[in-house]
Description:
Blueprint: H1 7-20, H2 35-48, E1 50-51, E2 64-69, E3 85-86, E4 89-95, E5 107-110, H3 118-125, E6 131-134, E7 146-151, E8 154-160, H4 161-167, E9 170-171, H5 173-178, E10 181-183
Parallel strand pairs: 2-4, 2-5, 5-6, 6-7, 8-10
Antiparallel strand pairs: 1-9, 3-4, 7-8
Amino acid sequence: MATRVNPIRRLRRLALAVLLGAWTLGAFSQSLPSEYQVKAAYLFNFAKYLEWPAGAFASPQAPLTLCVSGRDPFGGALAAYERRTVQSRELRVRRGVGLDDLRGCHMLFLAESEERNVKQILRAAASLPIITVSDIDGFTEAGGTIGLVEADERVQFEINLASAQRAGVKVNSQLMRVARNTRGKGQ
């Protein structure tokens, strides 16, 4: 039987790991970041190490769009990154994205509320240049691209290279080196 870790202690360790890791923003407010503030920082930083195919954007000035499917767990955490520049593109966030709204998304976060729809959403996204990300258990095994996992009392991530390859998106080797686990073939 697993032992329960005090949630405050877990958050403190999570915050320390982020502050000491390569994924920090540089300056958080004086309070500890929430789990989804940390995950929002990961999403923003993932975009720095991904290369979408030329046809993924409507124009050279088109924004990079991060879509959230399901009940948005981020609260205001993604607002800190909205309209910031990543790879010479402005980051935009679209919430409440469903199966019919996937076009125009470059990254798609599947919230836990979408767990029962994961396979259907991944099938719909498979033919599009979309990096799928989620913190749903077993996400990369199910065919998702990046799975956010809690291990060693901190947020880490796994990468499914075969999923990225199907989407036509190249994953920088620096991102692969810091991943907890990488599955699928390299690019």
